[in-house]
Amino acid sequence: MKPRGRREYKPRTRVNERIRFFKLRVIDSDGSQVGVLPREEALRKAFDKGLDLVEIVPTARPPICKIMDYGKYKYEKHKSEKNKHKTTQTKEIKLGMNTQESDMLVKLKQAEKFLSSGNKVKVKLRFRGREIIYATRGKETLLNFAQALSGIIEQAPRIDGKTGSIIIAPKHNA
Prior knowledge:
Mean pLDDT: 88
Largest sheet: 4 strands, mixed
CATH architecture of the largest domain: 2-Layer Sandwich
Distance between the termini: 42 Å
Strand order of the largest sheet: 2-1-4-3
Shape: rod-shaped
Low-confidence stretches: none
CATH superfamily of the largest domain: Translation initiation factor 3 (IF-3), C-terminal domain
Number of strands: 8
Number of domains: 2
Helix content: 25-40%
CATH class of the largest domain: Alpha Beta
Strand content: 25-35%
């Protein structure tokens, strides 16, 4: 909870007369560099074209400003912030060599739910005691599990020590 009466500081983009510096590095509307100009001259160039002078990099010395349509810039910036990509998570499901058929169906439903929500699924098969001698049977179990799902095998089944794993990605991400 933020303190009452105080606002969060959001750095604003300075436009036209709000630019404080006297010398500015100016970029034209077509992307070519105009050079270092006094603020009044840069504003005059922008107004002659019917555009705005927008401060793009205020931390540079001299600050970098661009001649552009500020409304269009603001709209595109808002649009790009809105369309941030959703990061996919990798959910993990653990199996054993002696997992029963009914338990396997529960794990399959859980994995299907993860895949339908857009997440990857990592299926881990752990070998206990001397079960490691059945590593090929473990790989077959992982492959059968993956084929029962509506996903794409992203990483083939592999055995690392006493665990085997396979990674399955959702179909719509491929």
